[in-house]
Structures are given as structure tokens and as C-alpha cells.
């Protein structure tokens, strides 16, 4: 990644409260809601068959993204797992692996790849868009901490222990939080019990947007019906075009206006 000069240090943020963290169990209810509202979810805009690489969050595997990938496949997308086992972090080790995986998928299909990343998977997705823009169609992140004080998370100590990596290069953080060369949508919730929601906010840009989902959780946003609808809507945009998300459809009430 480039060594462009870092900006001033981000303002210190607090990790989510213990109350929010303890409420993360509602993710199971979000999964149940997705099952119950399946007929409504299937009225989302259909895909054009282009490849979509879905990246799991920290300590998660492809099992966690299976419902999301099935939903996207049923809508007509070529949704693929990341296939690297459990995501143990290791950004500086995994980024070259992910670049090769993206290049291989791009070469295999002959089409640009959309990236959907949950939590840490979204951080990887933004990195791939910065380093391999010719292979990326768009980036969609779900509860991903890429902006501001990324240490404002209740998973910081576990990440440091599992990844065996020190603090990230400030220049890398600056680039990840900056403009992307492709359309990008950050889907987040203010009731995130793992990362401070402010670290999920993309800076204003003609090809960037933030979509807030009411009542979602960090552990459930990847199966939340309203979040999944938004993902499908964003993926259905024609390649090379970006129009901000319109908060309508069967889950319009779930989005912040």
C-alpha cells in the first residue's frame, strides 16, 4: 500500500457499552426474521450473474456468510466464499492472499468482482478496491470499522492476540478511510455492540454512501433482512454506475432517513 502522508490522529472514541455488547444475542432474531420474510426479500432487484466475493468477519468463517451467499445466488449473483478458513485477522499476512484470490476470480469470470465484507471482511474489501481497482466493481461493507479510531472496539485485545500483529501503519489507516476508486456503500447500525458505529462511516464522496439500519446488531447485520435487501439493491446497479440508495421497498421503515 502507498506510503502517503497520514492525516492528524483520529479523535479518541470509546468501544460500545457493555449493555450493547450483551444485547448482541439479538442477532439470532435477525436470522429468524430473514427466514420469516424470505418472500419479501426475494422481491429485491435481481442480479446480472457477475461474481460477488463475500468475506467474513473476525473469528468467523464462510459458515457465517452462507445465508447471505445463498440469498445472493437466489437473486442471480455468482456469490463466492472466501475459502480461507476462519478469519483470524492478520491483515498484513492475508492481504497478498486476498489480492491473488481476487485476481484469480476476475480472470476466471472475465468480469469485475463485487466485494461484500462483514466487519473485518469489509476492511479487506476496501484494501482490495484500493490496490486492484481494475478488478473490482463495487464494495459493500457491513459493520466494518475502517474510519476514525478503529481501536474503539470490544474485540481489540482478542484481535491482537489472534493476529499476532502490532498496531497498523497509520498510512494504511488513512488510505482505508479515504476515497475509493469504485462505488462503495457502508451499511451499519448505531446499536453495534462490538465496534463504535462512527468507525463505519465513509467520508462524503460522489461514489460513497452510508446506510443505517435501525435495531440491527453487529453479529446479526449480515443476516438482517433490511441489510440484506440493501446489499441486493446495491449489487444490482449496472457496472460503472452509482445512484444513492433509496430508502423504500418492504423494509423502508428499517432505514434511517
From TrEMBL:
<dbReference type="Pfam" id="PF00561">
    <property type="entry name" value="Abhydrolase_1"/>
</dbReference>
<dbReference type="InterPro" id="IPR029058">
    <property type="entry name" value="AB_hydrolase_fold"/>
</dbReference>
<dbReference type="GO" id="GO:0016787">
    <property type="term" value="F:hydrolase activity"/>
</dbReference>
<protein>
    <submittedName>
        <fullName>Alpha/beta hydrolase</fullName>
    </submittedName>
</protein>
<keyword id="KW-0378">Hydrolase</keyword>
<feature type="domain" description="AB hydrolase-1">
    <location>
        <begin position="57"/>
        <end position="147"/>
    </location>
</feature>
<dbReference type="InterPro" id="IPR000073">
    <property type="entry name" value="AB_hydrolase_1"/>
</dbReference>
Amino acid at each position: 500500500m502507498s506510503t502517503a502522508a497520514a492525516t492528524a490522529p483520529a479523535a479518541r472514541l470509546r468501544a460500545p457499552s457493555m449493555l450493547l455488547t450483551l444485547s448482541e444475542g439479538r442477532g439470532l432474531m435477525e436470522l429468524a426474521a430473514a427466514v420469516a420474510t424470505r418472500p419479501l426479500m426475494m422481491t429485491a432487484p435481481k442480479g446480472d450473474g457477475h461474481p460477488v466475493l463475500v468475506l467474513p468477519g473476525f473469528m468467523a468463517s464462510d459458515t457465517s456468510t452462507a445465508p447471505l451467499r445463498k440469498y445472493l445466488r437466489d437473486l442471480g449473483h455468482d456469490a463466492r466464499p472466501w475459502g480461507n478458513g476462519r478469519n483470524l485477522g492478520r491483515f498484513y499476512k492475508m492481504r497478498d492472499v486476498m489480492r491473488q484470490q481476487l485476481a484469480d476470480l476476475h480472470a476466471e469470470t472475465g468480469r469485475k468482482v463485487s466485494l461484500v465484507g462483514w466487519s473485518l471482511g469489509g476492511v479487506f474489501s476496501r484494501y482490495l478496491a484500493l490496490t486492484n481497482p481494475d478488478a473490482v466493481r463495487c464494495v459493500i461493507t457491513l459493520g466494518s470499522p475502517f474510519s476514525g479510531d478503529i481501536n474503539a472496539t470490544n474485540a481489540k485485545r482478542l484481535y491482537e492476540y489472534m493476529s499476532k500483529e502490532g498496531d497498523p501503519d497509520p498510512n494504511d489507516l488513512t488510505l482505508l478511510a479515504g476515497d475509493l476508486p469504485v462505488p462503495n456503500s457502508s451499511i451499519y447500525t448505531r446499536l453495534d455492540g462490538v465496534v463504535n458505529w462512527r468507525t463505519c462511516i465513509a467520508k462524503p464522496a460522489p461514489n460513497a454512501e452510508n446506510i443505517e439500519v435501525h435495531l440491527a446488531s453487529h453479529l446479526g447485520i449480515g443476516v438482517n433482512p433490511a441489510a440484506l435487501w440493501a446489499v441486493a439493491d446495491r449489487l444490482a446497479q449496472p457496472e460503472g454506475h452509482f445512484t444513492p440508495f433509496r430508502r423504500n421497498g418492504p423494509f423502508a421503515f428499517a432505514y434511517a432517513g
